[in-house]
Amino acid sequence: MRARKRFGQHFLEPEWVDRVVEAIRPTPGDRFLEIGAGRGALTLALAPRVGELLAVEIDRDLAPALSARVPANARVIEGDFLQLAPSRLALEPRVRVAGNLPYNISTPILFRLLELADDGRRISDATVMLQREVAERLTAEPGGREWGVLSACQQLRARARVVLDLPPGAFRPAPKVHSAVVRLTYQPATPSVRSIETFDALVRAVFMLRRKQLSNALAPFATSRGLGSGEAIARAGLDGSLRPEALAVAELARLADVFASV
């Protein structure tokens, strides 16, 4: 079957499957959730090496074709991962996640995984194929061009590490960019924060104006919370002349806690 552009499909080539499985490091007792099973290259290689596997595929032609081929310990469901109810994803007991994520919706999927992971209680880790640019954002450090909303929100609650690089030729059709396999290991917020929702909202707000000084970038968000930006920055012990892109997770957490305590 041809790849469908609207689903962002790029199918993993057979010669790369073993390398990806090795990067995932499955064990016989693992329960896996696979996102974007496609034609089943990864599904059929992973299933014999784990205890259980639930594969999600949005393509209504590919899902039934793959369902007829998987072993008894695997199951395929048709649906959009972003829309499926948690109860359909069989997250209890805790699962591991693997997948070849569509480039066009990889960021929303990463945020949904972060939400579903529940500090690692429902999802222990996710090993996923991503556009290398997204992988660089996940592993970025403060002050760099890649540091932003995705970096800060993910790094508060997950450790990210690139475990394999993939050239365009690892997929068919070959994308125009390089890819990477990233392992995200979920954990409770580190440092702890009073409110995850406030942290995420603050980060999104200040990074919309990432090139401005923090005192100016924070002003609209601070006003909406009934607090002056200067006062909030002072309470957090930060320098208002810095740009948001220079702030580390711990500094953003201190600032978010100021608003969460108002």
What about the largest sheet? Answer: 7 strands, mixed
Q: Average pLDDT, to the nearest integer?
A: 94
CATH superfamily of the largest domain: Vaccinia Virus protein VP39
Low-confidence sequence ranges:
3-7
Radius of gyration over all CA atoms, rounded:
20 Å
CATH topology of the largest domain: Rossmann fold
Q: How many discrete structural domains?
A: 2
CATH architecture annotation of the largest domain:
3-Layer(aba) Sandwich
For the largest sheet, list the strands in their spatial order.
4-3-2-5-6-9-7
Structural features, described:
The chain starts with 10 loop residues before the first strand and ends with a helix. Residues 3-7 have low confidence and may be disordered. It is built from 11 helices and 9 strands. It has helices at 14-24, 41-46, 62-67, 106-117, 132-138, 149-157, 196-207, 214-217, 219-224, 229-236, 249-260; strands at residues 11-12, 31-35, 52-57, 74-78, 95-100, 123-131, 158-166, 171-172, 179-186. The protein is elongated. It folds into 2 domains: 5-186, Vaccinia Virus protein VP39 (Rossmann fold, 3-Layer(aba) Sandwich); 196-260, rRNA adenine dimethylase, C-terminal domain (Helicase, Ruva Protein, domain 3, Orthogonal Bundle), CATH 1.10.8. It is of the alpha/beta class and 262 residues long. The strands form 2 sheets. A 7-stranded mixed beta sheet has the order 4-3-2-5-6-9-7, sandwiched between helices. Strands 1-8 form a two-stranded antiparallel ribbon.
Topology (SSEs and partners):
Elements: E1 11-12, H1 14-24, E2 31-35, H2 41-46, E3 52-57, H3 62-67, E4 74-78, E5 95-100, H4 106-117, E6 123-131, H5 132-138, H6 149-157, E7 158-166, E8 171-172, E9 179-186, H7 196-207, H8 214-217, H9 219-224, H10 229-236, H11 249-260
Parallel strand pairs: 2-3, 2-5, 3-4, 5-6
Antiparallel strand pairs: 1-8, 6-9, 7-9
